[in-house]
Amino acid sequence: MRRQNGITIDDVMRMECMEKCKLIAGFKGSRNTVSRVNIMADPDILNWVDAGELLLTTAYSFKKDDVETQKKLIRECAKKGLAGIGIKIYPYLESISQEVVDLADFLNFPIIDLYYAIPFSDIMTPVFMEIFNKQASLLQRLEKVHEQLMNVVLSGGKIKDMGKVIYENLRNPVLIRLEFTNEIIMELGDIEGETRVFLLENFSGFYESSKGKIINKRKFEETVENIQGKYFRRMVMPIVVKNNVYGHIFSWAMQTPLGGFDLSVLETASTTIALEILKQISVRDVENRYRAEFLEDLLSLDKNRKEKALERAEVFKLGLEEEYIMVVIQLESQKTMVTDEMLKIIAILNSDIEALLNELNLKAFIANKTDSINVLLTLSADNRMQTSTKEFCECLQKNLGQRLKEKQYKIGIGRPYHGLAEVYKSYIDAIKAIENGGLIGEINMTYFEKMGIYKILCQDSLREELERFYEATILPLVEYDRKRSAELVKTLDMYFQSNGNLKKLSEDLFTHYNTTLYRIQRIQKITGMNLEDHKDRLNLEIAIKIKKLLKK
């Protein structure tokens, strides 16, 4: 939508200078806004006109042009977004072709029959004066709106108070969605019952195209919406902070029309709300900096840093003798994702997590890193891992699934430990769970407690020993596969998955039973181990797991 800072075609037609002029086509475009007036002496002027202009001309060129050329001019004018065209038809023509009139009606493009004796200057000057007066009045009204919004900010008011200011000026229902705080502010006036429900459904429908993912459309949108069988104009203004969308302001023309002034109000409000959000983000950044420094000291293996953190624990309302469990959310870095976008996602997820913690009545300490969120849950006697903590993690995964794509995040849950000094162990568990969850088939969320033998194998202190064990067991098999393009390692892995049942193994591999039997014999010969021997079988099964762990 072009900005409507001017007067409408209807306003122009009511002016004294237009008394003997007549609107002959495009009546539905009479609400088009005139922001400037221009004169056309040559059709090439269309290369230099702007949207919102009222073009004045004569039918001299129409006289020598055929109907198709005349229609082309009307199409081009409408395409350029001109407010309309005024033509001195007489004395050049008796009338405009009906085909041209029909086209203008179809395009809702106004054509004005100008009185032949009136000079163009007698139209341009009063119209320009009227536009100037309208714009001056508009600026005064907008200045008042800006003052009202700033008074809210300076008096310590909240964004919901700004919503009231927007509603009072638009005199139409207003709805503000803030992704940053996971908040919806409604100023719907007298709208109740079914209409209210349909309005909220229309609001929700705006986000359906994003399929629940975080959207970042920075463009203003204006559409005509069907609500209870009636059509209403809807304006949606994004709230942009650091080139990222942190919410939207919605308004529907259910009480009065929405025009240029209303658009300017939404723009002013959006900017003011963005400044308020930026202030809140800055405050959170400072708070998080202290929290992140505290957590780094707490997780440090340096004795002095840890003692320093334990001394400050009371500041963050953390008891030294409580039981704790660490939940780490790792956001996978995307090549297309810039730093500000990542910060926005973390800010929004923080708000979601805080809301979830309040809902479940859980006590937690949250600290962010560049691409991760660390949640330190405090466990009480009636809040064990298998109850509230499990519910929190399940709700957290559901929330992340709605906000992000599957490959954009991973959640690791450490084991519970007694005492704040032992929290680093739970953190290490959570990181190990994130790194190795795929080994047990977990894609997005992994409990370290459920990792089975991998809990032992993934310990850093065992790395060298695991390398040696791998080399002494199935490395020859891996090298054989590499040289011969065979699938002996895959066969061995699936052998254990099928519990040594060769018939099932053949079906899973889509190979003949004799081929499968031959492969098993080759595996035993190359490794020097007998799969019928329980010790050798155990060693080979562990070696397969070690191979996956070492990512060989």
From TrEMBL:
- Pfam families, alphabetized: GGDEF_2, HTH_30, PucR
Using the record's annotation, list all stretches that form the CdaR GGDEF-like domain. 305-435
Top-rank taxon of the source lineage equals Bacteria
Q: Where is the PucR C-terminal helix-turn-helix domain?
A: 488-546
Q: Where is the Purine catabolism PurC-like domain?
A: 11-131
What PANTHER family does the database record attribute to this sequence?
CARBOHYDRATE DIACID REGULATOR, DNA-BINDING TRANSCRIPTIONAL ACTIVATOR ADER
Which family does the similarity line name? Belongs to the CdaR family.
What's the protein name? Purine catabolism regulatory protein
Q: Which organism is it from?
A: Anaerovirgula multivorans
